[in-house]
Backbone:
């Protein structure tokens, strides 16, 4: 446990939605930990996304009425699976929780307490540690997600292919740009306003897109390190992973930015993508990853769909890009990381807030001495 927190004055209903496809023991570990939570008004919804290994039935026999099972009949993908469940939920708050997580007993108390303090808080992210190496931050979220102006994602505790050891350096509730989909706590009324997950994403970065759209509605997204969740990650392997990451990232930019911002940042992003291909070709002398280029082809080929989604987002907007840009990092994070060798979050320049605001009183020089571990790059 990171620190003490006052319990909420009331206990609003929370639905924890666990999307599952195959794997009995991993799922059992997740559900056992969630049912062991100390939060009193909790409902667990297990969404069977077309499993054929009997794992869902085993959980039903083991837990009975403690969990509600929603069977989809076939694998609808990550985003559509969650959306099917969200449309059948009645709760003040919902949590989108990956089935390869294990939660701390007090995790929900911290999240509910934070959200109850301000009705403008629409999404919260717990601290995510790596289940395999619990002293390190996990790859897809760490201690809260950030974005630079070219829509490059990064987190407090993990930059690209390096994750920091957790020494409490980010143990402070603070506004971030996005909350990780591995354990995403959401105010349901705000979710209805912004719209559910965009099923054109299928998988990858859908939570960043949702967080952006919540911000366009004037809501806040915060990191709540008191709440602790362990995530294994990397269990779902898609052949199109690189393509989906690039496509969804570009799609997100085109949907959510104003025209003025797009004209300013999309060309920069295009040259960055070209530059990364050239860099990879020169330095690695291996097969070129064409996912980035194919993403642009998809964007042009599916322009009608893209425009319709963009029109929907812009029609819901109540916040200008001037406000959105103030919550983004200004210098390009890729350049800072690869050219200037700023390998930790605490070394970055151009953050929305002064660096010390993010560090919980831990001196940057101490963070600079912490160990890091190599991970798969998130971007």
Residues:
């Amino acid at each position: 446990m990171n620190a003490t927190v006052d319990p909420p004055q009331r206990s609003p209903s929370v639905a924890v939605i666990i999307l599952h496809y195959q794997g009995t023991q991993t799922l059992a570990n997740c559900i056992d930990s969630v049912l062991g939570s100390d939060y009193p008004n909790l409902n667990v919804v297990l969404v069977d996304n077309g499993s054929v290994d009997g794992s869902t039935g085993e959980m039903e026999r083991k837990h009975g009425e403690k969990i509600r099972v929603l069977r989809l009949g076939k694998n609808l993908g990550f985003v559509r699976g969650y959306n099917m469940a969200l449309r059948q939920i009645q709760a003040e708050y919902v949590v989108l929780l990956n089935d390869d997580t294990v939660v701390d007993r007090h995790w929900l108390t911290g999240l509910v307490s934070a959200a109850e303090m301000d009705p403008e808080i629409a999404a919260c992210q717990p601290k995510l540690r790596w289940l395999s190496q619990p002293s390190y931050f996990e790859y897809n979220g760490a201690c809260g997600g950030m974005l630079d102006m070219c829509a490059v994602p990064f987190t407090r505790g993990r930059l690209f292919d390096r994750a920091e050891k957790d020494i409490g350096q980010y143990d402070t509730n603070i506004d971030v740009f996005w909350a990780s989909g591995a354990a995403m706590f959401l105010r349901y009324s705000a979710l209805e306003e912004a719209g559910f997950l965009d099923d054109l994403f299928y998988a990858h970065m859908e939570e960043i897109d949702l967080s952006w759209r919540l911000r366009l509605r004037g809501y806040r997204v915060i990191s709540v390190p008191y709440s602790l969740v362990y995530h294994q990650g990397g269990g779902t392997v898609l052949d199109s992973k690189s393509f989906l990451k690039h496509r969804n990232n570009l799609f997100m930019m085109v949907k959510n930015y104003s025209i003025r911002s797009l004209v300013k940042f999309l060309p920069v992003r295009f040259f960055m993508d070209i530059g990364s291909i050239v860099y990879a070709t020169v330095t690695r002398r291996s097969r070129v990853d064409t996912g980035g280029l194919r993403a642009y082809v998809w964007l042009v080929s599916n322009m009608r769909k893209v425009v319709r989604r963009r029109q929907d987002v812009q029609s819901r907007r109540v916040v200008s890009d001037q406000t959105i840009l103030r919550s983004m990092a200004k210098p390009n994070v890729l350049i800072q990381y690869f050219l200037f060798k700023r390998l930790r979050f605490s070394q970055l320049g151009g953050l929305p807030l002064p660096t010390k605001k993010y560090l919980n009183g831990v001196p940057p020089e101490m963070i600079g001495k912490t160990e890091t571990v190599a991970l798969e790059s998130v971007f």
